[in-house]
Write a structure and sequence with these properties.
Layout lengths: L2 E4 L14 H11 L3 E5 L16 H15 L2 E6 L8 H4 L1 H20 L4 E4 L11 H21 L3 E5 L17 H11 L4 E6 H4 L7 H7 L3 E5 L20 H10 L6 E3 L10 H29 L1
Parallel strand pairs: 1-2, 1-8, 2-3, 3-4, 4-5, 5-6, 6-7
Helix pairs in contact: 1-2, 1-10, 8-9, 9-10
């Protein structure tokens, strides 16, 4: 197992400026990470994102060149995402923009040699849709992206979502591991797998080894982050209420073979960039601790 991080480890600086993808990759490498999960999620709305420009293919090549220069591997890509009733989805121009960002992100995954790209399902925020309706809508809409990914030699992993505390405002799907298993199994395709987000699951499961044992070999990758089970804070591990002993035990129990990918950003968006670099190194060390925990449990099992 390898330790990796998403490039979302770095957010807006004290001047409200978002680091470029290149600055984020350099920051991750500087913190000690050798394996990186490239987030292209911002391309869904940020018109200035290099993936949306005319030189988008050059941008992808430059990412690959930078990774080679730094001696790091771009192992995964996080695809864009939004909700079913988002104006971007219902507006033809907005939906075309999102679809383009998705297809370009899938192409980027292929060019960079990524095996699994990570996707969210699209939730409904205006009505209390029945879960089977959400499932059907998501399978219908995501079919084009799954097919494009397969042709590009890339698999897609869908995440478990975090339930909304205000249940009257909108639904999320899939939340439980059984919903996620059913959704992924319904594709009946080895190119579709599961990404288990421990932060999302912390709102549902005191002991995450239980859902992990049910998921088994469907699990291709994970997102490691923490919170207090109420909102999706993306804290570093051990800064929230997740039981990491049980969580890591669950990975050992199923002989998980993927990376241990941190999706933490342990600071405010307006935190000085110098402090974000300090926090990144801190997060790296915590990730190393989890990695050691996994190895110890594996040896203990024998």
């Amino acid at each position: 197992m390898r330790l990796s991080t998403t490039t979302s480890l770095f957010g807006f600086d004290e001047n409200g400026k978002r680091p470029t993808p290149f600055e984020r990759i350099r920051g991750c490498a500087k913190a000690g990470f050798k394996v990186i999960h490239l987030s292209l999620a911002e391309s869904k709305r940020d018109e200035d994102h290099p993936l949306n420009g005319d030189q988008w293919e050059k941008f992808i090549d430059e990412v690959g060149n930078l990774a080679a220069e730094l001696g790091v591997e771009i192992a995964q890509v996080h695809l864009p995402y939004y909700t079913l009733s988002d104006p971007m989805y219902t507006d033809p121009a907005g939906r075309a923009h999102f679809d383009r960002a998705m297809f370009r992100s899938i192409h980027a995954s292929s060019v960079l040699g990524v095996k699994w790209a990570i996707a969210h399902t699209n939730q409904e925020i205006t009505e209390q849709m029945f879960a089977p309706q959400l499932k059907a809508a998501n399978m219908a809409y995501n079919a084009q992206f799954v097919e494009a990914a397969k042709k590009a030699g890339v698999g897609i992993c869908f995440e478990n979502m975090m339930p909304n505390a205000k249940l009257g405002s909108y639904n999320r799907y899939p939340v439980t591991h059984w919903e996620l298993i059913d959704f992924v199994d319904s594709w009946n395709d080895p190119a579709v797998g599961i990404c288990w987000d421990f932060g999302h699951a912390n709102a549902c499961y005191p002991d995450q080894s239980i859902p992990l044992r049910a998921i088994g070999k469907r699990l291709k990758t994970v997102h490691i982050q923490d919170n207090y089970g109420e909102s999706d804070m993306h804290y570093a591990p051990f800064q929230g209420t997740t039981d990491w002993e049980r969580a890591i035990q669950g990975l050992v129990d199923i002989d998980y073979e993927g990376d241990l990918t941190l999706e933490a950003a342990p600071y405010r968006d307006d935190c000085p960039m110098a402090v974000q670099h300090i926090a990144a190194k801190f997060t790296f060390e915590i990730g190393c601790y989890l990695l050691d925990m996994y190895e110890a449990k594996l040896k203990q099992r024998g």
